Amino acid sequence: MTVVTTRFENDLAFVTIDNPPVNATSTTVRAGLLAAVEAVAASDAKAAVLSCAGRTFIAGGDMSEFDAPPVEPHLPDVVAAIEACPVPWIAAMHGTVLGGGFEIAMGCAFRIAAESTRFGLPEVNVGLIPGAGGTQRLPRLVGVEAAIDMCCTGMMKPAAEMRALGALDTVVPGDVVQAATDFAAILPDVPVPVSQRKITLPEPEFFTEKRLTVRKRAKGQAAPLHNFDAVKRACETDFASGQKHERELHLALRNAAESRALRHAFFAERTVAKPDAIKGVTPRDISRVVVVGGGLMGAGIAAACLNGGLRVAMIERDAAAAEAGAERVRGILDGAVKRGKSSAEKRDALLEKFSAGAEYAAARGADLAIEAVFEDLDVKRAVFASLAAETGGEAILATNTSYLDPQEIFAGIGNPARCLGLHFFSPAHIMKLLEIVKTPETSAEVLATGFALGKRLRKVPVLSGICDGFIGNRMLAAYRRQADYLLADGCLPYQVDAAMRAFGMPMGPYELQDLTGLQIAWANRKRQAATRDPAERYIPLGDMLCEGGRLGQRAGKGWYRYEGGRKPLRDAEVEALIENWSAENGIERSDFSQDQIANLVVAALVNEGARIVEEGIAERPSDVDMVQIHGYGFPRWRGGPMHYAEEVGIDEISWWMGAVARQSPGSWKISTLLS
Ligand code: NAI
User: Fold this and answer.
1) Where along the chain do the CATH 3.40.50.720 domains lie?
2) CATH fold group of domain 472-663
3) How buried is residue 443: exposed, middle or buried, by Cβ count under 10 Å (0-12/13-18/19+)?
């Protein structure tokens, strides 16, 4: 199939790219464009209109080509050829003009866009800088500050804003190829090519201040700073040397760990949503949802479903609780309006589709019921008995339980093939992760419907089997357990937190516990006490804090103290408690460096992830990575714990896991991957 066609009509050339799904600049497109430039240059056309078939203009490079050495023709040469063509090119754009697509557009003499078009250089999101002049042409086109913002965040800007920045000649409501044809009829003088334009230099202190902002936002990631430096270089040298440097760095970064990790995450997000268990299975249509329980989770789930265009009926214990639940849902939707993410009209339209009450009759005719009541087996069982009675035998029944066994929750319910776990994360209307828990009875169709729901709610759905805590909370327990061993053996909470932040986590384990409250984990430890392996080392420090009323930030104290604010402050009382406990238990405390702390904790996390894959709880290691990135703040630029382990080497991780096991004999089952 020809992906680039050139057609001459009257005095114009029409160059069309047709490379579904997003017209990526793959090798055939680049070669086709170069041939088109030659054909156009040899013709007597007075202008060439470049457009794309399908839903978008070129939306970036073909990432599947990034693992191999680059193949000619290279994109910078294609852009240069377009820019140097004696016949002026007009980019006629719609959809999303991203990465290499935007770089090609900047090589054109004129740029015309449909109103809904958005522009961006998202290379930073996959650990790269643009490789075909993006960092050098953009500051010449829109100014230095806007160029830095776009390159360093990867954020897209709408056509109107790009027009205001001077990047577009016209923005049109309708047919952009027709608009380009009309534009060509009264063609203005051809402007100086973007690459040859002068950059308006900012004040010298601008770069110093801006770099600090970029560094802060980068949270340990290197690519935002590389993008910053590349744009800055455009201000300091000529185009040719700036571009040469940009290209070299782009190619070097393709092979660097950060970009490999981010590309891994990008592809893992796509595969995780299509587990083998639902291959070829058609999901059911869902339009009416019942949410039972209107507390923290129920309200968030209801809001997520409303935002996904579903009709939601909430069922609570009594009228007062129903009103409180409804108020929580309204609060969430109002919050979106206040933050400018939604409008009052949209909120009102969503609330039209929402009701709350205490009667199970509201469940009649529902396609799906999601239970989010207290974490108590008997309470949940009673809820499902009522739901089963009202919904008939087909409606899908889901539990949001964190730790209970869904099989026990659903025991005795007719047609267990329709039952599954839908484990949302708090706040449920925001967090991307959705664990979809399969029982041995759950049918493929019901699972597929869970995944379709996840997509509709814009979640990252991950298939999980049944084990204590499913994938995410089971790994969290291992992570915290190893952190506690470190406290017992020599660390203080602030040291563990600082080490994990330095690794790239948004927060350390202890400040995070303070933020979310210590009660749930405490209750859990009590529940697990009976089944805990007696050989396993148990550190009761968290229990001791809870018993002393140190339940976290909301209580004003937890692992840290809080002087009215949210800032965790080291607390001598807690530190003495930890040190005394070690002494009373005959433990000689040692020093651990930041790197040692992070290596030991991450090894325990990787080990648990590997066991979860071995046991078949997760389908693939990359699914585990998705859970950690989208539910627990594991740095995306490290690709998730399983990718990270491959990157640093399994031998290295095994060595650290050996150290973890030696530190606490009898406390860890080591996965075969690491043993
Ligand atoms: P919550 O205590 O905030 O809300 C529970 C709600 O259920 C209350 O509003 C209560 O009135 C209602 N309720 C209790 N019994 C009921 C019944 N028989 N019929 C109707 N409504 C009833 O609890 P939260 O945090 O929302 O947790 C709910 C479930 O979600 C639990 O199973 C929990 O393990 C799970 N979960 C919690 C997460 C969290 O971060 N809090 C995260 C993921 C899951």
Assistant:
1) 287-464
2) N-(1-d-carboxylethyl)-l-norvaline Dehydrogenase; domain 2 (1.10.1040)
3) middle
Residue 305 in tokens = 């479903």
Expressed in angstroms and rounded, the spacing between residue 374 Cα and the centre of ligand 1 is 4
Q: Does the CB atom of residue 374 touch ligand 1 within 6 A?
A: yes
Residue 370's DSSP bridge partners are 291, 398
- pTM of the predicted protein model: 0.92
For residue 153, which of 232, 218, 102 has the smallest C-alpha distance?
A: 218
Relative to the CA of 299, which ligand 1 atom is closest? 26
What gap in Å lies between CA 510 and CA 144, rounded to an integer?
41
Whether the predicted pLDDT of 273 surpasses 80: yes
Distance separating alpha carbons of residues 163 and 93, to the nearest angstrom: 13
Class of domain 4-255: alpha beta
Beta-carbon contacts of 489 under 8 Å, excluding residues fewer than 6 positions away, are 582, 587, 589, 590, 592, 663
HSE-up of 334 (CA within 13 Å, CB side)? 7
* 237-to-141, 143, 230, 241 alpha-carbon distances in Å: 16, 16, 11, 7
Q: Is 4 in contact with 29 (CB distance < 8 Å)? A: yes
- CATH 3.90.226.10 positions along the chain are 4-255
Contact between residue 109 and residue 50 where contact means Cβ atoms under 8 Å apart = no
58 contacts 104 by C-beta, under 8 angstroms: yes
Active site residues: 103, 123
Q: Which fold has domain 287-464?
A: Rossmann fold (3.40.50)
Distance 376 CA to ligand 1 centre (A): 9
Query: How do residues 441-500 score in pLDDT, each as one tens digit?
Result: 999 999 999 999 999 999 999 999 999 999 999 999 999 999 999 999 999 999 999 999
Sign of CA dihedral 257, 617, 528, 472: positive
* Pocket of ligand 1 contains residue 294 by CB under 6 Å: yes
Residue 330 tokens read as: 């309204």
Tokens of 9: 């009509």
- pLDDT given for residue 352 in this prediction: 98
